[in-house]
Amino acid sequence: MSELVNNFTMTLSNYVSKEMVIFIISMIPILELRGGLIAASLLKVSIIKAIPICIIGNIIPIPFILLFIKKIFEWMRKVRLFEPIVRALENKAMGKSEKIQNYEFLGLMLFVGIPLPGTGAWTGSLIAALLDIDFKKSIIAELCGIAMATIIMSILSYGLLGAIIN
């Protein structure tokens, strides 16, 4: 992940400000807040400035995914080219959904909050939408998960990782 973040950081920083780089990275699936905080530490953006930018960038896609992904998938299924993509995304998301199904709020919060490959707000939102978890419950669980991921990744990016890189 750090190599991907580094590539995005170096490429984007040629065109936009440091703050915009971390904002964009925080919105990208797979990278999300975790990648944004790593990029912020690489770009020497203060943690006080980086945290709100990364959180906002990570939060923006959530309501759109929760509200519209099923309709988008429904439309995409009608196009033969997109149907396998939709099936693959659904299978991947639902393959990770067991804990969320069993524990709903807590499961979704932990899924979003524990920074492991394949977890995060994008996948959590997709799973919540596919499982028809209540919108408000999903939003609150994901916000709690993002807060948890922020704490963990701040320590890793600015603490341990910061000491290793600098």
UniProtKB/TrEMBL annotation:
<feature type="transmembrane region" description="Helical">
    <location>
        <begin position="105"/>
        <end position="131"/>
    </location>
</feature>
<keyword id="KW-0812">Transmembrane</keyword>
<feature type="transmembrane region" description="Helical">
    <location>
        <begin position="143"/>
        <end position="165"/>
    </location>
</feature>
<dbReference type="Pfam" id="PF06695">
    <property type="entry name" value="Sm_multidrug_ex"/>
</dbReference>
<keyword id="KW-1133">Transmembrane helix</keyword>
<dbReference type="InterPro" id="IPR009577">
    <property type="entry name" value="Sm_multidrug_ex"/>
</dbReference>
<feature type="transmembrane region" description="Helical">
    <location>
        <begin position="20"/>
        <end position="43"/>
    </location>
</feature>
<protein>
    <submittedName>
        <fullName>Uncharacterized membrane protein</fullName>
    </submittedName>
</protein>
<feature type="transmembrane region" description="Helical">
    <location>
        <begin position="50"/>
        <end position="69"/>
    </location>
</feature>
<keyword id="KW-0472">Membrane</keyword>
